[in-house]
Amino acid sequence: MIRKELCKIISQQEIAADIYELTVQGELVDQISAPGQFVHIRVSNGWDPLLRRPISISSFDKKQLSMTMIYRKEGKGTSILAESGPGELIDILGPLGNGFPVNEVSSGETALLVGGGIGVPPLYELSNQLVAKGVKVIHVLGFQTEAAVFYEKEFLNNGETYVTTVDGSYARQGFVTDVMKDLQFDCIYTCGPTPMLKAIEQSYSNKKVFLSLEERMGCGIGACFACVCKSADDPTGVSYKKVCSDGPVFRAGEVLI
Amino acid sequence: MIRKELCKIISQQEIAADIYELTVQGELVDQISAPGQFVHIRVSNGWDPLLRRPISISSFDKKQLSMTMIYRKEGKGTSILAESGPGELIDILGPLGNGFPVNEVSSGETALLVGGGIGVPPLYELSNQLVAKGVKVIHVLGFQTEAAVFYEKEFLNNGETYVTTVDGSYARQGFVTDVMKDLQFDCIYTCGPTPMLKAIEQSYSNKKVFLSLEERMGCGIGACFACVCKSADDPTGVSYKKVCSDGPVFRAGEVLI
Amino acid sequence: MSRLNIELPGLTLRNPIMPASGCFGFGREYSKFYDLSVLGAIMIKATTLEPRFGNPTPRVAETTAGMLNAIGLQNPGLEKVLGEELPWLSQYDVPIIANVAGSLEEDYVEVARRISKAPNVHALELNISCPNVKTGGIAFGTIPEVAKQLTRKVKEVSEVPVYVKLSPNVTNIVEMAKAVEAGGADGLTMINTLVGMRLDLKTGNPILANRTGGLSGPAIKPVAIRMIYEVSQAVSIPIIGMGGIESAADVIEYFYAGASAVAVGTANFVDPFVCPTIIKELPDLLEKLGFEHINECTGRSWKKDGQLAYHRA
Amino acid sequence: MSRLNIELPGLTLRNPIMPASGCFGFGREYSKFYDLSVLGAIMIKATTLEPRFGNPTPRVAETTAGMLNAIGLQNPGLEKVLGEELPWLSQYDVPIIANVAGSLEEDYVEVARRISKAPNVHALELNISCPNVKTGGIAFGTIPEVAKQLTRKVKEVSEVPVYVKLSPNVTNIVEMAKAVEAGGADGLTMINTLVGMRLDLKTGNPILANRTGGLSGPAIKPVAIRMIYEVSQAVSIPIIGMGGIESAADVIEYFYAGASAVAVGTANFVDPFVCPTIIKELPDLLEKLGFEHINECTGRSWKKDGQLAYHRA
Ligand SMILES: Cc1cc2nc3c(=O)[nH]c(=O)nc-3n(C[C@H](O)[C@H](O)[C@H](O)COP(=O)(O)OP(=O)(O)OC[C@H]3O[C@@H](n4cnc5c(N)ncnc54)[C@H](O)[C@@H]3O)c2cc1C
Ligand SMILES: Cc1cc2nc3c(=O)[nH]c(=O)nc-3n(C[C@H](O)[C@H](O)[C@H](O)COP(=O)(O)OP(=O)(O)OC[C@H]3O[C@@H](n4cnc5c(N)ncnc54)[C@H](O)[C@@H]3O)c2cc1C
Ligand SMILES: Cc1cc2nc3c(=O)[nH]c(=O)nc-3n(C[C@H](O)[C@H](O)[C@H](O)COP(=O)(O)O)c2cc1C
Ligand SMILES: Cc1cc2nc3c(=O)[nH]c(=O)nc-3n(C[C@H](O)[C@H](O)[C@H](O)COP(=O)(O)O)c2cc1C
Ligand code: FES
Ligand code: FES
């Protein structure tokens, strides 16, 4: 069930250039059903900024009722969010959407988790859960530049991890797709910029691929029709899916991206 | 000179029901030239609320570069202001306007200081300065009800002090004008609701009276013409005074109230 | 005794608070947060004759204290609304106001004719003012004679009272209001969104794929208040007011201006509980302000004391 | 090399940032905060033939992310502006744009004729759009033919280029823009305020003594952007844009929409240093976005790459 709750900030820190890791505590954590779900955060009590900000849950702990989000400080809303500190209460709506289906790979199989930039965070909980059920995980994480890299160690703890940077300032220079070519796996889970998702969808049409999409949102719960995408089997018609409530994770080929 | 400065909050406390006493430190204190001047406070970094809030300086200390404001938490802006605490920085524009002329009474004479509700604060610095130069001060302070009374002790320290409450829940029941009738004095300084100012102006046309006015403000510095009032000698014409830059203190009979 | 019940043409409302069209879908999502029967009414999403996909995304953009939307009237079409959405809503004890849209006059008329027969539809809201649809809409919403004509045609076929939703994007809103009143409208709803635009700093392109969109939220409230103030003095049909409402105080301000009920749109996205919260807080605020009933507030900004509000007459 | 210098009819600007009319008086107050010569230009307060007191107070009311004003064109009158204000301003090396207002056509013409002779007045801004004055104003600002006629009359007598300030309170802003262009306008300034209203919760009365007022501030920015986007594609005279500008990013957004310079109004009240701050921050932002000169930004939202901005032609 979706809840709206004033959650208490446990900690917040800048873990890479403009990348913040925010941990909060709240009853709504108990409602999380899958890695890859997200929350909708109100960053101000007033009306500037007006809209909530959608941010993925990057990990959670139901015993502690705590969850962690990782976000990039970019515009007005995330800049305000970055200023809040431990003990403060923030208004969170969630958990929202449907996450990554962990049951699509079985113990002993290999899952490839591919993240680009701020698409990396939701893969972390996914990685943890896959490892827990005995799936072998390989991570390919793409960043712009050295200063933007985060969570490399955390992913390494779960399995093989390849990092790329666009400018070559750290690890391998290039795109995640360059690395992927040489890897063996049964299933892909990916989240990141749309061009990356498109490239992966096209190159691996023979594989099971799950993509997490982004779209500008109004309500975040399926009521406003801001975040729709066309069903892939009806490209000129009226069939659609909502990223917020039907996604954000879709099976490759399910919707037009 | 008027400055715009991020001033540091030294302390803030609720001294009566919804009445807050806020002390800040900043270079602009050095620019204060008279009791009864005010500052224009920005209560939010964003645009909701948009406008600054005009608040009188109730006392200041040039050595410490500190000043105190007393305000009623009422609408959106003052409610936000009431939430800030020591160490935080607030954006203050000031000092603004022309204050009470302390030189209109001489040592040995008696000044009557009449304040209504949230018009009481600016009289406190005035009282201190008058006492310092040897003027006898009498205070008449009107409040709605017992819970709203503040600074009685502080004024008592400077001289005779009469308190009235509209509902009679504390001290004498009635209006400040009821008390004033029986007092002897050379000059009146007053600040409070417009009906009170009007009553005083009418009843004491034979005395020296200085009134501090309130008006909704835009800029607070004389540029927008939001806060004008008509000159009393040209009631149907185009002569005017600006409350923010020509006032807020005017000699009775100078402007139409 | 309730301070909030209101009678309007076709509508017996337990309170004058309803979600605005397009901001509440067909109620399913919000039904997970609270019992929809607490609402005064529900204005459902615009319904067109055929299903529509609407505009490409991005469809929303934030502005200071507001948002732009260019959904483009996405909806499942009349059949599905009649066959699925309205029956689903009938489990709740709440009157439905059906928002009717189209490109051609015939479309409006056909949707109105059929949807007005649904048992839980107690009124129509004629959407002549959607700024996000290329064909049709704009003339209906900006030319008085065209609006009047459409209103008359829809009135002829509708089995329930017809409220016409006015666009604020006009020079003379009073003229539009009088025209649709003359066309037989039973009430007005106002305002729809102001046409606006945001551009992306990095690309220079409009943020919305549709380029322009409709501005809603607290930013537009003063424009709505002014228009309702003007129109309520010029017509004798009731007004359901909307535009940036987010608190009980806002509701009272709309009533003072001349509204007899209100709708809450954008604020639902910020706080899904905003409607029940306002409904809960209104009686206390009325008490504090000294009103026995909310209908005493209607038109207070321009009525002489003692004059009667529309719905007391 | 400056990235900010701009050439417009009558105006050689060291940068395209100027305070908007009515939000900066005649400059005296802000001259205490900074040297006015840093500004691109100054749009002085509306000047009428005779001195005016304006409307009763309260004259301003706050709204969410905006404010309403109903100053009512208070000003000291043409004589005093010519005799005192403009000479005082001449100590600064900054072109003045004189905002011309009136009730009758003759008033406009007379003010324009005489004020355009002042040596530091480099352009006129014809205020046909003030929402707070009862007589005259409204027809000039909403009827294309009337606006065109007035523009023509003023052009006949003015010794400097004439910019016409458009009202956003119209159904079709493009039509208004084309009309004044046809009347000979050298440029446009837009937008003036949207008509709005706030009511007092306790009394039920309008907060403004004038009842309605003009809405300005960040709330109206998306409406201004949209209108400039539409108008800049339909006319071939330059536009000075305004409405809620408060940052260098806002300036760029206005240029993308189609503006060739901008004015800052309400934001001066919030931060008296807003104009010099924006002027200081603009070059870095342009650098970051990859522009060598701000004029590359004009109309970027609708121009094909490589097409030239107005002031490069
Ligand atoms: C399902 C989902 C999950 C996401 N998870 C994360 C995450 O874990 N970490 C992270 O850093 N970011 C994530 N994003 C992107 C994040 O929502 C945006 O970066 C953020 O909203 C930008 O807000 P701002 O205040 O910085 O920018 P502003 O420019 O002030 O935003 C203005 C408006 O545009 C919207 N917006 C701007 N960029 C985006 C975007 N890329 N996607 C959607 N809306 C946008 C904002 O939500 C807001 O409504 C996610 C987006 C979605 C849809
Ligand atoms: C020169 C001067 C000195 C003042 N000194 C004090 C003081 O020392 N202590 C104190 O408590 N109050 C003082 N006031 C009144 C104070 O400015 C208002 O109470 C305050 O602005 C209300 O803001 P809000 O956020 O509570 O209300 P809101 O309702 O959110 O205010 C909305 C808008 O109306 C304006 N406004 C509302 N009430 C008033 C008012 N009475 N006067 C002027 N503007 C108003 C606000 O400034 C704001 O622009 C003074 C006013 C003036 C003009
Ligand atoms: C996302 C969104 C979708 C909307 N869809 C419709 C619609 O389908 N039909 C309609 O008449 N109005 C529609 N509107 C306008 C609202 O009903 C309302 O008139 C407007 O948003 C002003 O109210 P608000 O400021 O409370 O949102 C929509 C508004 C939004 C924000
Ligand atoms: C207090 C105030 C007074 C104004 N006076 C005038 C005026 O005299 N002449 C005019 O053309 N515009 C006047 N305007 C409109 C502004 O010049 C500007 O067009 C409008 O406020 C939008 O810009 P902003 O949002 O940056 O304030 C005034 C605006 C305000 C807020
Ligand atoms: S964000 Fe409203 S439907 Fe998805
Ligand atoms: S508040 Fe602007 S002139 Fe006084």
In short:
The complex is a heterotetramer, with two copies of chain A (257 residues) and two copies of chain C (313 residues). Chain A is α/β, with parallel strands linked by helices and 257 residues long.
Characterization of this structure:
The complex is a heterotetramer, with two copies of chain A (about 260 residues) and two copies of chain C (about 325 residues). Chain A has about 260 residues and is of the alpha/beta class. Chain A has five helices and 15 strands. In chain A, helix 3 (about 150-160) links the parallel strand 8 (about 135-145) and strand 9 (about 160-165). Chain A starts with a strand and ends in a 6-residue tail after the last strand. The mean pLDDT of chain A is about 95. Chain C is an alpha/beta fold. Mean pLDDT of chain C is about 95; it is low at about 305-313. The interface of A and C includes residues 2, 51 and 218 of A.
Please tag this protein with its features.
heterotetramer; A: 257 residues; alpha/beta; 6-stranded antiparallel beta barrel; 5 helices; C: 313 residues; 8-stranded parallel β-sheet; 9 helices; 17% strand; disordered C terminus; binds flavin-adenine dinucleotide; binds flavin mononucleotide; binds FE2/S2 (inorganic) cluster
Question: Strand fraction band of chain A?
Answer: 35-45%
Compute the CA-based radius of gyration of chain A.
18 Å
How many alpha or pi helices of chain A?
5
- Note the gap between the termini of chain A: 28 Å
Q: N-to-C SSE series of chain C?
A: EEEEEEHEHEHHEHEEEHEHEHH
Order of strands in the sheet with most strands of chain A: 10-9-8-7-11-12-15
**Integer average pLDDT of chain C:** 94
Number of strands of chain A: 15
| Helix and strand composition category of chain C | alpha/beta
Uncertain runs of chain C with pLDDT below 50, 5 residues or more?
306-313
User: Would you report the number of β strands of chain C?
Assistant: 14
What's the multimeric state?
heterotetramer
Main beta-sheet annotation of chain C = 8 strands, parallel
Please work out how many helical segments of chain C DSSP would assign. 9
Helix content of chain C: 25-40%
